[in-house]
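User: Is it possible to get a 3D structure for a protein together with its bound compound? The compound here is zinc ion. I've pasted both below.
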Amino acid sequence: MVTVSYYNREELRKYIIDLYKKFIPVKALAPEFGGDGEADRASVLEKELTALGLKPRRFDASDKRVKSGVRPNILAVLEGEDPSRTLWIVGHIDTVPEGDLTLWKYPPYQVTIEKDYIYGRGVEDDGQAIVIAMGLAKRLIDNDTRPKINLGIALVSDEEVGSRYGLLHLLERKAFNEYGTGYFLIPDAGSPDGSKMIIAEKHILHFKVMVKGKQAHASTPHQGLNAHRLGMMFNLMLDEVLHENFSEYDSLYEPPVTTCEPTKKETNVENLNTIPGTDVVYWDCRILPRYKIQSIKNFIKTVSYNFSASIGAEASIEFLGEDDAGKPTEPDNLFVKSFSEAIKETRNIGVKPIGIGGGTVARYLRKKGYPAIVWMTCEETAHQPNEYTKLSYIISDIETIFHYITKKV
Ligand SMILES: [Zn+2]
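Assistant: Yes, that's possible. Here is the predicted structure of the complex:
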């Protein structure tokens, strides 16, 4: 177990709380959630980065739907001994809405501290990344410690809705290129002991199944064709053959298989004595990256074609969205290996590199060939009422990354 060099822990705790209290009350909601974007929160954070002695740069994406006309993205770099490499800590500025206010024990946009706990919308997702990155910069600067490589802080917009105005915009503008080789740490998911290190994701595929029959009175089914019954038959059959045909197992992933789930169901008829003429069901698939999304799409289309041909009723598929996972960051990648050592040495625990079904901005980085790790210490309270994290988690995350960037690189 490594003891990290002395620093004023109380001062760092105070810095973290003050920082949270400055930006959490300034809402940062995407226009899709009825919000006005991240501009106000970004200017607060930009000021704080400047106060640390850094020179933040803006890479805004224009978006006419918000008052400011832009979705802000900020990069700030603290130069290291070897400026040809940069550890980027990526945090997203935007949050999801607070949801049902009556479920909150404290007002969501007022940061409430209760012993070690910090409550508020966005304190974990993804305010934790922001305070980790800035708290680490403060610690390095206050201690006059030069990191071995650059510490880059990337504060991005639009993560909750798809990153088009956020990380994808930064990648389009090649914003990271001038800072040399990039290693990306994305504190946006994790586990309470910090042993979970996410290095891979699954492809995501969303689609809609529409089965058409013929509406009739429930007492005269022979005059109609029950789309609800046909829909159940088709969706259950699809469920079975998808799992049979894409059945490979990969222990890197949690869960270790491709998942395909029927989810939302559209309302069909208003009254219970009508046989519905249309049946609509939505699916969410999380696909192991060894499969090609296109091959699953083709398979689904074949199944629906064969069903339609044999039943004589149309089962049609509409693909609504897909997102390629990119290549996993290899478990023996240098960044992954040194970062897991840093976790082990600062916490005395084993580290488990895993893949997940959820999507983070890491996939876009992996697609560009950057090594990317999603990691932090948290209890995964994101998007829930009473979202919280702990000061001790944040401090220990800062310690681990401090150890990595000053010793392990
Ligand atoms: Zn998040």
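Residues 92, 125-126, 159, 188, 382 surround zinc ion (CB under 6 Å). DSSP finds nine helices and 20 strands in the chain.
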